[in-house]
Specification:
Strand content: 15-25%
Number of strands: 11
Shape: rod-shaped
Structural class: alpha+beta
Distance between the termini: 213 Å
Radius of gyration: 59 Å
Largest sheet: 4 strands, antiparallel
Helix content: 40-55%
Length: 310
């Protein structure tokens, strides 16, 4: 009886120890992460664990890396993972310095996390961020900013510089299996003297742009006036041509009226002349005679009547 009871106790102890060992060997990989398995007997064994619970031998260690987007900050504010003042200064091509706050997002390349593990000697993703990614973001940002004058960084070239920095950091970090998704300057500050110089340049640029706009407007208006003048000249020319044609038509019509009247008068005269026979002429003479015989004057001035001549 005692032997059986002892056996049951031993079995219970073994089961408890086995359960404890199983629990001890369980590894959880959070969502958005993968785990690189390191075998203490033979180094990285190539096994990559996806999210979830995994039973891992006590002789193996799992290091996790985020393959989801992680947001990080280098700012003066206590924001995100930037608990202290992590803003930094960047140089410019004209010898000035600018204080900037910056935020960026990154992730580890799932296909290369084993190489990343080896490169960084087994450091976790969080440790790599703090000891490598952040310092390199600062250093490589300074390399880009050194190519630009302070007026560009603080002024209208800020977007272009941000885009160049984004490309530059992607290329630099890619060789380490780290993917940079976004980089943005959230704040840029300069001393009062530099700010005044920048404002002066901005004002000059605005005045130049205004002058260019006014010149362009004047040019457009002049072109419109020229087009209107050309159109009006064309209209005037067409009107003059129409008037000239009208004058010609009216002159030809007037000439036709005169010609037709002359032809009609000539025709009438011709008809009258054709109708004047000797008999008709004598008749007309008779009808218009007042019955008084004509008198003839002589050389001596004596008027001789011919009433008695018959």
């Amino acid at each position: 009886m005692r032997k059986g009871k002892l056996g049951a106790i031993l079995l219970a102890v073994v089961m408890i120890l086995a359960l404890a060992g199983a629990i001890f060997c369980l590894e959880r990989v959070p969502a958005g992460y993968v785990g690189v398995v390191y075998n203490m007997n033979g180094g990285v064994d190539g096994e990559i664990l996806t999210q979830g619970w995994h039973l891992v031998s006590p002789t193996k260690k799992v290091t996790t890396y985020s393959i989801g987007i992680e947001q990080s900050y280098l700012t003066a504010e206590k924001k995100g993972d930037s608990k202290d003042d992590e803003s930094f200064s960047i140089p410019t091509s004209d010898g000035k310095t600018v204080r900037v706050n910056l935020e960026f997002s990154y992730r580890f390349d799932e296909a290369r996390v084993a190489n990343t593990f080896v490169t960084f000697k087994g450091k976790s993703g969080e440790s790599i961020k703090d000891t490598f990614i952040k310092p390199k973001v600062i250093a490589w940002t300074q390399e880009v900013s050194a190519n630009y004058p302070v007026t560009d960084i603080f002024g209208d070239k800020r977007t272009a510089i941000n885009a160049e920095l984004d490309t530059y950091l992607r290329e630099k970090f890619n060789q380490y299996g780290i993917i940079i998704d976004t980089v943005n300057f959230t704040d840029i500050s300069v001393d009062a003297e530099t700010a005044a110089a920048i404002q002066k340049k901005v004002t000059a640029q605005q005045e130049l742009e205004l002058a260019n706009i006014e010149a362009q407007t004047a040019k457009v208006q002049a072109e419109k006036d020229r087009e209107v003048a050309i159109i009006q000249a064309q209209k005037d020319k067409e009107a003059a041509e129409i008037q000239a044609q009208t004058d010609v038509i009216e002159a030809e019509a007037a000439a036709d009226v005169v010609r037709i009247a002359a032809e009609a008068e000539a025709s009438a005269n011709k008809q009258v002349a054709a109708s004047l026979t000797p008999e008709l002429i004598e008749k007309i003479k008779f009808e218009h005679w007042d019955g008084v015989l004509p008198k003839v004057s002589s050389a001596s001035g004596t008027i001789i009547g011919i009433d008695g001549i018959g």
